[in-house]
Design a protein that fits this description.
By secondary structure, this protein is α/β, with parallel strands linked by helices. The chain has a single domain, classed as Ribonuclease H-like superfamily/Ribonuclease H (Nucleotidyltransferase, domain 5, 2-Layer Sandwich), CATH 3.30.420.10. The chain has six helices and five strands, in the order βββαβαβαααα. Strands 3-2-1-4-5 form a five-stranded mixed sheet, with helices on both faces. A hairpin with a 5-residue loop joins β2 and β3. The longest helix is centred in the C-terminal third of the chain and has 17 residues. This is Transposase.
C-alpha cells in the first residue's frame, strides 16, 4: 500500500484515532478520552503502522518525536506544522489534500446511529461497535 492516513475525530467525550489505507478503509482504531491530547493516540498507533511509503496526518499529530518515529520506520510524514512552531515544517500540500478520504470514512461511520450518538458509554463496547460498523461498511 502506498500510504496511510492518521486522524482523530469524535464527540466531546471520546476521540477516535484511526489508521486508514490509501483507499480510505479503516485498518486500526484507538478510542481515547476527549480531553486527552492527540499524542496519546499517535503513541499508541505508531507501533501498529504497517509498511508504507508515506503517512498523512492532521496538525494534532505534529510532534518531533512522532516525525522521528516515522522516519525510523522509513515513512515520509505529510503532517502540517502547528501554528506555534518557530520553524515551519514543509509538506506536500497536493498530497495532503487526499486527507478527505479519511474524513469521508469518519462520516460513513457516523451514519450508524450507535456510533454517531455515542450510545455505548463503555469504551470497549463503543470500540467494538465502531469495528463492527467498519467491517460491515468497508470489508463485507
Amino acid at each position: 500500500m502506498p500510504g496511510r492516513a492518521l486522524q482523530s475525530n469524535g464527540p466531546r467525550g471520546t476521540k477516535l484515532h484511526a489508521i486508514c489505507d490509501s483507499k480510505g478503509r479503516p485498518i486500526n482504531f484507538f478510542v481515547s478520552a476527549g480531553q486527552v491530547s492527540d499524542y496519546i493516540g499517535a503513541r499508541t498507533l505508531v507501533g501498529n503502522l504497517p509498511d508504507v511509503d508515506w503517512l498523512l496526518g492532521v496538525r494534532g499529530y505534529d510532534a518531533d518525536w512522532f516525525r522521528e518515529a516515522l522516519k525510523d520506520k522509513g515513512i515520509r510524514a505529510f503532517i502540517p506544522g502547528r501554528k506555534q512552531r518557530k520553524k515551519p515544517v514543509r509538506y506536500d500540500k497536493r498530497r495532503y489534500k487526499r486527507r478527505n478520504r479519511i474524513e469521508i470514512m469518519f462520516g460513513r461511520l457516523k451514519d450508524w446511529r450507535r456510533v454517531a450518538t455515542r450510545y455505548d458509554r463503555c469504551p470497549k463496547v463503543s470500540c467494538s461497535a465502531i469495528a463492527l460498523a467498519a467491517l460491515v461498511i468497508y470489508w463485507l
